[in-house]
Amino acid sequence: MKRIRYGIIGGGAWGHCYAEAITNDTESELTVIAEIAEETQYLLKRDFPDITVTADYRELLESDIDVAAVVLPNHLHHKVGRDVLLAGKHLLIEKPFAVTSKECDELIQLAEEKKRDIIVGHQFRLSSLWGKIKTMIDNGFIGRPRYVLIELSRNPFRSGADGWRYDPKRVGDWILEEPIHFLDLAVWYLERFAKPVSVSAVSNATDAALEPLRDNVGANIMFSDGSFAVVAQTTGAFEHHQTVKIVGTNGSLWGSWSGAMDRTRHSQFFLKASDGKDVREIPIENRVGELFELEEQIHRVTRLIMQRNVLPHCTGSEGRFAVRLSQWVAESSRKKTPIIIS
């Protein structure tokens, strides 16, 4: 059986997780990793001795891979993503798709010209917990959604290689780091019922030295049918705790996930549902967490490229809207005024 051949551009901490997920998938094959840091190259060669490791990602693009996974600092997504598509490879790219909507547009247009797929790494859509909530909403369990709360408190961000995550020129904005996931979830949960029409946001920094990168963010998204979603996050707390609460005309849902850190295989989670009278716990069939969702993402992308009737879990257009929504949140917070979504 032919396996889909992957290359990874960026072999840091999350790139290493990508490598594990690809090598553990029976229908995928990891053949090459591009990484410029010598210390990281050593770790990759130690942990994946059968995989070619190169410092130049252009060598990776000249190989016979089918998919290039871009796991790089945010400011490099557009340039490297463009090179991937020009080389005729399918593009699996970490969120954010790019740091501006204009850059996203350019990549989408290029993918259409080259007839290649773009899949954006919003893995939470593949979660057996957060995805179960979407399924129950779409199946009408809570009726018409009226209120969504998505809240996260967690440890401070990792600095990233050479401190890129704390450099505004390279990260773009911290809203593109974690809140973008939850802004995407809110729109995804309500997409069958209404569209977002305005955003009102606030933010601040726990430590003034972090400015203009703010670790506390709160956004209120109004939708066309009068429903609204509140997305709130702090990275000035401890451990990693995420909550989703959704209230509809016929019931409500409450999902929770907690771990000592984000990338853990040991966590506590639950999903509870109420029809307005009784409360029951909803079974979650599979394990929950970023590492498991990454594995599911690789499996799904592989089957997509194999043309096995699998749709992208997050298309380039959807990834672009998540970037645009993040920009509106940042703009609203900066200007201290609501932003109308055209």
How would you describe this protein?
The chain is built from ten helices and 15 strands. By secondary structure, it is α/β, with parallel strands linked by helices. It folds into two domains: 142 residues, Rossmann fold (3-Layer(aba) Sandwich); 181 residues, Dihydrodipicolinate Reductase, domain 2 (2-Layer Sandwich), CATH 3.30.360.10. The strands form two sheets. It has a nine-stranded mixed β-sheet. A six-stranded parallel β-sheet has the order 3-2-1-4-5-6, with helices on both faces. β1, α1 and β2 form a beta-alpha-beta unit. The protein is globular, with a radius of gyration of 20 Å. The model has no long low-confidence stretch (mean pLDDT 97).
Biggest sheet: strands side by side, in what order?
14-13-12-11-7-10-9-8-15
H-E string = EHEHEHEHEHEHEHHEEEEEEEHHE
Distance between the termini: 48 Å
Low-confidence stretches: none
The percentage of residues in β strands lies in 25-35%
Write down the CATH topology of the largest domain: Dihydrodipicolinate Reductase, domain 2
CATH architecture of the largest domain: 2-Layer Sandwich
Overall structural class, as computed from helix and strand content, comes to alpha/beta
What would you report as the Rg, rounded to the nearest angstrom? 20 Å
